[in-house]
Amino acid sequence: MALTAETESRLYRSLRAAAGAAAHLVALGFPTAVAVLARPGSSLFSWHPLLMALAFSFLMTEALLVFSPETSPLRSFSRKVRVRVHWALQLLALLCALLGLGVITYNKHLHGKAHFVTWHGLTGLLTVLYAGGQCAGGVLLLYPKLMKNWTLAKLKLYHATSGLVGYLLGCASLMLGMCSLWFTTSVTSVSWYLAMLCPLLTSLVIMNQVSNAYLYRKRSQH
Length: 222
Hints:
It is built from seven helices and no strands. It is an all-alpha fold. It is an enzyme of class 7 (translocase).
């Protein structure tokens, strides 16, 4: 028996809501697991994985999910409020990422180790720099008059697209970090694969959210 268009639409919204709820759980659960594993305060290095997990798994994911029409905890609030919360979460994510980068850089300096010689290190550095640029670019959305030759719709589109690239970079950095000796020594077997699935799940949810927002904007223009 064929599904009606209304039933298909309801089923699709339900699946999106379930995926979004799972993304919220993973966004919080992953850094919690990293905190248990790293035991922050036990060493200088222990702060690095926690800060990076907070930045790119929790804060940045929640900063993007705040615009989700199905799972945003602020969906009943005005867009202006959600934009301000998005800004605050992104700035906190950038602060955590900068602190995490500073911790690992200083830790390597203390132990006489080379800096940024692994794929994880290089990707992490690129991600932090990109996040800083993305936050700076977001200022243009708060003050669109600074870009007189660009429409607000175009600025939003480019900001969302570049933000997605930055988020995927962050997920890639987390996944490369889970290939490090420290992580693979502590997390093995099925647990390692489950950990790797965490950034994959959230990235798929965020990609779906951004692509749907883009399609909605395109339809509204016609």
